[in-house]
Design a protein that fits this description.
Oligomer: single chain
Radius of gyration: 13 Å
Strand content: 15-25%
């Protein structure tokens, strides 16, 4: 199986939760021979700080 997964860590506990979810996905690739491409994009407060919008066009296009 091959897939591209968009990771949107967001604010609050989002980055910590996403970091742990990424570990689970990596374990899945090893156990079941899946291939995932993980892409990360800004959303929420971090996006406002870096792009001036909670949902920047670059994130929307993904």
């Amino acid at each position: 199986m091959k897939a591209t997964i968009l990771c949107l860590p967001g604010d609050g506990i989002g980055p910590e939760v996403m970091a742990e979810a990424t570990k689970v996905l990596h374990a899945t690739t090893q156990r079941f021979d899946h291939r995932f491409t993980l892409e990360e994009a800004p959303i929420g407060g971090t996006a406002i700080d870096s792009h001036g919008s909670p949902l920047p066009d670059t994130t929307r296009q993904l």
